[in-house]
């Protein structure tokens, strides 16, 4: 892997003399207070501005500030005109545009394409503060405000739309966002290296059009530059050479009458010397090799070619061996340079060690920002994920090589959070990242890692070259627990349990000290069909982890539960698969209130399966095996209903499906049957954990309270839905208990109400 210039080795821009700002300014008044006459860079974002390293605009803004640039922020602007984009004046270098921490379409719409009622990245959780495809809209408004100012596009929304991509909401293939956004350059993946390089070069007077050699960038060009070797990957099932058919009426012995004989080259003299031209091997000039993908027009009209292009893109994601990619859009090419070089531990410490205020900008007053409230007391210890789950965007965006912070850097952040963040009670809500237990796990050999092209290090099994040592993470947990003022360290990030079972010591440490009653893990399914399309381990790994979890919980004298997450309607899932999953859930006593249906996000491998019906995990041809796809609303509802087999509202749909599948034997009240034959008269399903549920028929006020996904029912009620009679019993029982506590008992003895089941 080629060396990269460290982030802290660049010369500082002249504006370094102003020093760091308490908050990056969001108004001209704040700029005046800082003594600025203008901003060098203005970041436009779809999220509220929270000066915390879990928010992209804060990381990029503080990093550029550390390089000596004056950085302003325009957060959640009114996109209906250019006026809001001009409030900080004209930036001297460029606009940096991002939709926010989430894709704006996923942020606004559910998997069923219904508009969400809230936005976690907006003060008060209000919806509607950002437009659909926010990156595209913001870029256009920036160009409308200052047409000559470069626009640098970044963030996860742009990253996942850098080439022609399937758009779930329009059910069609859209062209690269660069073609519609009028931006000058796009940064994909972890953008720290690219944004610093571009800012420095623009500050030295280079034009944005001339910056074409920065890794992790995409831009528009008209042709392949001289000196590059182009590999044509625009077609599949290309036939070999076919010999011309000889006319049967031609005398082949008569060379004057045989056209084929005439086309033959003259016989060469073996004694004659020939000059042989040796062409360089593309393997030896990988940094000057570009792969041409099928054009936008072709992938738009041919789903199989779309799947092929998706496969090629995912094979070129290892920074150690990835080649550039190019895709034609009409008369122009979208050029993608290889992915960025991962940051070193020293660089990660540098980025996370910036002077973050760790709170929202004061302009929001006392309004709460839900996303901030969730991560306020959490610490990110690493980046990246080598799991490669096909439905997930983390690997595509952050890469599969884990980028780690040092112990000292993490401990300093915990101490800073303890001392600076209001409301800290001594509980760190999370010490993790995309996957909690991938910290300092990597390939045993840098040379093997450099050449590897596997999409996952843990599927179909854990790679023999992967070091699964959890000792550094265990040591970190122990150091963090020992800090003064820290009472508890919780692990709230998702856990890769197939890795965890490789280290029983880690599981014991985790279960004994860092589980707050419940631990989230994601088996996603129980059946091999969908699991193989997800690149997830079999349910046997979950069973092994569950045994260890329960064993160490018992040894610690704690009652703790696993919270398994499952996906409905994923490519490769049949009705029978969902039925078997429902039976597994019932056998294991799980009743999920929150159900996740597959959400086709741009550029994900599973999305290519959903659109094409082909499997890009293998070579794609027109004759290759297809993938079972769940697309109709009716079938998606059925798959979600299997996950909520316990909800009486789903029983009619499930009965019809089970009869159609020839499994009417699962209808009845027996222990091994899935749903009963009768339909109760109830107003609506009420979860087992009643205090966390909105009663049926009540008016919706604020947020809907739901049972946490997968919690086992309380022993007192057996998990059965209440009817009105039982609700009356519960009310009477609760009233009696209150009277006893208040000392109002006595007098004539009244009949004792029966406690609810």
Short description:
Residues 371-640 form the Radical SAM core domain. By secondary structure, the protein is of the alpha/beta class.
Can you give a write-up of this model?
- By secondary structure, this protein is of the alpha/beta class.
- The chain has a domain of 268 residues.
- The protein is built from 25 helices and 21 strands.
- The strands form 6 sheets. Strands 2-1-3-4-7-8-12-11-10-9 form a 10-stranded mixed β-sheet, with helices on both faces.
- Helix 2 crosses helix 7 and helix 21 runs parallel beside helix 23.
- The longest helix has 19 residues.
- The protein is globular.
- The N and C termini lie far apart (63 Å).
- The relative contact order is 0.08.
Shape by Cα distribution? globular
Main sheet: strand order: 2-1-3-4-7-8-12-11-10-9
Oligomeric status: single chain
Number of strands: 21
Note the total helix count: 25
Distance between the termini: 63 Å
Q: Proportion of β residues? A: 5-15%
The poorly predicted ranges are 685-724, 744-757
Estimate the helix proportion, in percent. Answer: 25-40%
Largest sheet: 10 strands, mixed
Average pLDDT:
87
SS class: alpha/beta
The rounded Rg comes to 30 Å
